[in-house]
Amino acid sequence: MSKKATVITYGCQMNVNESAKIKKIFENMGYDITENIEESDLIFLNTCTVREGAATQIYGKLGEIKPIKAKRGTIVGVTGCFAQEQGVKLAKKFPLIDIVMGNQNIGGIPNAVEKIVSGETKHVIATDNEDELPARIDADFESTKMASLPIMYGCNNFCTYCIVPYVRGRERSVPMEQLLDEIKVYVQKGYKEIMLLGQNVNSYGKEFKNGDNFAKLLDEICKLEGDFLVRFTSPHPRDFTDDVIEVIAKNPKIARAIHMPLQSGNTKVLKDMNRGYTKEDYIALAEKVKKIVPDAFLTTDIIVGFPGETEEEFLDTLDVVRKVRFGTAYMFMYSQREGTKAATMEGQIEDSVKKDRLHRLMDLQNSISKEISESYEGNEERVLVEGPSRKNKNVLSGRTSSGKLVLFEGDESLVGEFVNIKVTDCKTWTLFGEIIK
Ligand code: SAH
Ligand code: SF4
Ligand code: F3S
């Protein structure tokens, strides 16, 4: 019987992409991929450390794995950002871990697994910070129609709350020719949606001497032949230049969901966060995007309870949310990350206050999301069919260019195709519709 391997993913799209690569690595090593950890001979956790909750989830999963390892001798590896951050500390805390392989070192996984299998060593710990372009590793994506690819790695921004620059290293971009070649192959293979990834995608190419930048990359991708949609995440508002907005406006191949992480709506808090823009800058940018790309669906990330945030400052965040009217927002309570500047700032906010602010923000945002969703009624939308819906196999699900989930009746053979849908009913998070012949 062949050996089985499981990869469990936490965190952002970059981790999802890297997990796809790790699965491919395991397949190349002769493992079959399974989601059932009970039958697994090799389990890797691809971890996140952006907020405290991420770490807690990982501890819980290790607890679940312990009896499985005791029974079958499963090899346990931890990779990703939490592994990168914790290094050897993690293996000391959890002796069941055989391999700690930081996010900068996933190429070293096969070697590490072989060392453990052959009994050459008891533990392998590798969390070097390369600050170089990692080797491009092949990936198999869960969906046969949606591919993602990193265009840049790392982050130089050092927002004061954020641990990512410490675990992902400095910014480095993949040469444009290489990206265009890779995307061409994906499109030829039939992928209909290409997601460009980076911690700060619109600083793509800053280190290049040949003038290649994010706007040019988007433009060149759109010139590639074929019917496909390009998404990207995450841009930084400070680097959201006019040429990028214009490229989006003129290219229907670029998705209308535009993510612009706000973090806070108050200028003083933004300064303390080291975000590089003011409340007014942000509102002006959002207005410009909406004017030049009228069908833009803005999404955002917001943190409440940053150290020192007063009630009045928090109200500024609500004010921006009201003015900009985001389609959706990912909303978080500030989480103290050791080693970041904000972790030692004065004025850390009580959990009860953070919770209260989060609830008020969510109430406001949910009502806006609902209104925006309802405005889709009667629209005709081009939708990429992703698969049968989870709850009802006779119903298909897909997403609009703006990222809204749509459910409609149709034949499974349409999966991976674009269809035109007339929207007949709208709930906050889901649209319902029918295929227009
Ligand atoms: N590079 C991306 C994503 C960073 S992490 C970007 O800049 O947009 C994703 C989101 O997690 C951030 O946008 C931020 O809203 C949130 N986040 C990061 N650090 C956090 C912290 N310490 N506490 C709470 N939320 C945090
Ligand atoms: Fe973190 Fe800021 Fe970099 Fe995003 S831009 S990864 S929030 S430091
Ligand atoms: Fe988490 Fe690392 Fe992504 S900390 S959010 S997995 S970059």
From TrEMBL:
[4Fe-4S] cluster 2 binds at C155, C159, C162. Residues 3-118 form the MTTase N-terminal domain. It comes from Cetobacterium ceti. Its cofactor is [4Fe-4S] cluster. Residues 374-437 form the TRAM domain. This is tRNA-2-methylthio-N(6)-dimethylallyladenosine synthase. PANTHER family: CDK5 REGULATORY SUBUNIT-ASSOCIATED PROTEIN 1 (PTHR43020), MITOCHONDRIAL TRNA METHYLTHIOTRANSFERASE CDK5RAP1 (PTHR43020:SF2). The gene is miaB. GO terms for molecular function: 4 iron, 4 sulfur cluster binding; metal ion binding; tRNA-2-methylthio-N(6)-dimethylallyladenosine(37) synthase activity. One of its GO terms (cellular component) is cytosol. SMART domains: Elp3. The keyword DNA-binding does not apply.
